[in-house]
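Encode chain A's predicted structure.
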Amino acid sequence: MERKYFSAQDFGIGIITGLAIGAIAGILMAPESGESTRERLATKAGDIKLSAQDLVDNARNNLDLAVNRLEGTFGTREKILRKRLGDLKDELEKYNLGSA
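Encoded structure for chain A:
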């Protein structure tokens, strides 16, 4: 049997969907008046929207951080490689056969 893997995005969407369905079901089953229920539903919808926005913002920040770390790592490695290549070039110029 083949295993199916879910991405972080799929997981986040599942969490948000589950929270929304659970909140709506809980509000609709509550023994309150229609107006009170609608107010609570509006409040919960706003809370869910804020939670979703926080999730997106956190994901975006984490992605930016990962990109910056990778750029830093590759940038450092590039500098080291350029220095080594420069050193090698200098070393090879000692044996320049064109000037003989």
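The mean pLDDT is 81.
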